[in-house]
Amino acid sequence: MNAMILAAGRGNRMRPLTDHTPKPLLEAGGRPLIHYHLLRLADANIRDIVINHAHLGEQIEQALGDGTSFGLRIHYSREGTALETGGGIFNALSLLGPDPFVVLNGDVWSDFDPGALRLAQGDLAQLVLVDNPPQHPRGDFSLRAGRVHDTGTERLTFSGIGLYHPALFDGCEAGAFPLAPLLRRAMDSGRVGGQHHRGNWFDIGTPERLAQLDRFLLRAPVAQTSPRA
Predict the structure, then answer these.
(1) Cα-based distances in Å from 41 to 23, 53, 122, 214
(2) 62: domain CATH number?
(3) Residue 86 and residue 164: Cα distance in Å, rounded?
(4) Does residue 14 lie within any of the structural domains?
(5) Which helix (H) or strand (E) element contains residue 32?
(6) Is the peptide bond before 178 cis (omega within 30 degrees of 0)?
(7) Is 229 within a domain?
(8) What is the distance, to the nearest Å, from the Cα of residue 192 to the centroid of all Cα atoms in its chain?
(9) How many domains does the chain divide into?
(10) Which residue among 17, 61, 139, 173 has the highest number of C-beta atoms inside a 10 angstrom radius?
């Protein structure tokens, strides 16, 4: 199983921090945010990683190289202009291969194990949902008996962590487009599973939430924050 880390966003809400540093390289708990994803993927024995980038992307390549220091093989999907979530994944399909692949938003932190994701027979996606954070109280989707729906009153928030089959992108064309409409179409046909992660999860969208994560990591046990020294 391969994985992709979405790292092409401009990070406007993080400015001025992202004026000279791409958001995935901002630090919390003493290391760049993207390191946590790479370490968890390595621990899950997911070795081939695609990272897309646009804004200041050369800094990401310089910082991570080919992934050898993490025990990984990193491939880069370079976007001149950010292609949004759906377009970015579609643009990288040739690097991700024919099998289902994990996708992680570069601006989230979680202790979820990406190796725990599995697609049920016939499914196009498996989403990780979390309790609604204060900044997103209405949530995104509902989860009933392991199936994700776009309807329902008890809603959870999509964590930005999922497992996707390449067929989810059938019929798409190159360019910028969001992922959510593809997921909703698959939900309508009953082909999206999900799970509720009740562990730690942070949406790192603003300097204040970055500082919150930094405080959490600095007081957390070493094993929780740093799978490797």
Answers:
(1) 19, 19, 25, 21
(2) 3.90.550.10
(3) 11
(4) yes
(5) strand 31-32
(6) no
(7) no
(8) 17
(9) 1
(10) 139
Which residue range forms the structural domain that includes residue 198?
2-220
Q: Per the domain annotation, does 55 fall within a domain? A: yes
How far is Cα 74 from Cα 71, in angstroms, rounded to an integer?
A: 10
Give the mean pLDDT of 71-93.
96
pLDDT tens sequence across 130-174: 999 999 999 999 999 999 999 988 999 999 999 999 999 999 999
Structure tokens at 141: 């989707």
CA distance 95 to 89: 10
| pLDDT value at residue 188 | 96
- Edge-to-edge strand list for the sheet holding 192-196: 73-78, 48-53, 2-6, 101-105, 157-164, 125-130, 192-196, 147-149, 142-144
| Model confidence pLDDT, tens digit, residues 20-62 | 999 999 999 999 999 999 999 999 999 999 999 998 999 999 9
Distances (CA, A) of 153 to 80, 149, 156: 40, 11, 10
Q: Give the model's pLDDT for residue 219.
A: 87
Predicted pLDDT of residue 152? 87
- Nearest-angstrom CA–CA distance, 35 and 152: 36
Q: Is residue 149 situated within a structural domain?
A: yes
